[in-house]
Write a structure and sequence with these properties.
Layout (H helix, E strand, L loop, with lengths): L1 H17 L2 E2 L9 E9 L2 E9 L14 H15 L7 E5 L5 H12 L4 E5 L8 H8 L5 E6 L10 H11 L8 E7 L25 H13 L3 E5 L4 H14 L4 H6 L1 H11 L4 H15 L1
Parallel strand pairs: 1-3, 2-5, 4-7, 4-8, 5-6, 6-7
Antiparallel strand pairs: 2-3
Helix pairs in contact: 2-3, 7-10, 9-10
Length: 287
Amino acid sequence: MGALLHELRRIADALETHVPQATKPDFADAPAYHWERVEAGGRHVGRLSPVQEPALIEFSDLRNVDQQREVIERNTRQFVQGRPANNVLLTGARGTGKSSLVKACLAAFHKQGLRIIEIDKEHLNDLPAVIELVRARPQKYIVFCDDLSFEEGETGYKGLKTALDGSVSGQAANMLIYATSNRRHLIPDKISDNLENNRSQDGELRPGDAVEEKISLSERFGIWLSFYSFSQDEYLEAVRLWLKKYGVPARRIRAAEKEALLWALSRGARSGRIAAQFAKDYVAQLG
């Protein structure tokens, strides 16, 4: 019996060393937080680090995402007003405004008590600790997972699934999860996953279960928003918006369109992000 107790204590000490313990943050009036791990006293400690001046953007600054904007703005408004709201998954082409829409939510609803907690993919298993830290707070929190995707063999998605709706304690009423990804189902699908049989000796007897396991993660988000690459006209509209915001005269904006198209061609894509990058470079050259 003594040997068993000794072994249990050893296991408990090992778990305490490797599983991050959450420290209670100083909930100053910061609009955003970043979840991070630090080592203290031989332990990994998780904490919310305040971001006093986060990068924000207004809804009115975004183009070619009107439908997506309407949905996420409505859902976030319901959330801050204490009405039912859904977790949101934003997927699609890179640079098309997914992350910007989430930042715009903070800009629009911060004064109504909305806060954002950004958490990196490798820390998703800490989500239960994050939930417990904010559960009793009066503010509303969006946990933001940016550029989220999982490679074959990674298990962090299971922590996200649990936080979405699978734990006994459940998700906090004052917290939602907004995630962006270039993948619709977050986890890569392989052709072999769809085979009814796997002829290899160690193949799964029920490969369909593996497919369901992958798809079930994205299905836990109540709202899916899809984003697509810009057409040439949409891209030029975004370029004009950014140049106007930087104070470039109208005649200069018209003259810049050819250069803007060449810029996009060199990048191999057209998007709001590429339009903003061109505008910065163009304005810098104007002096």
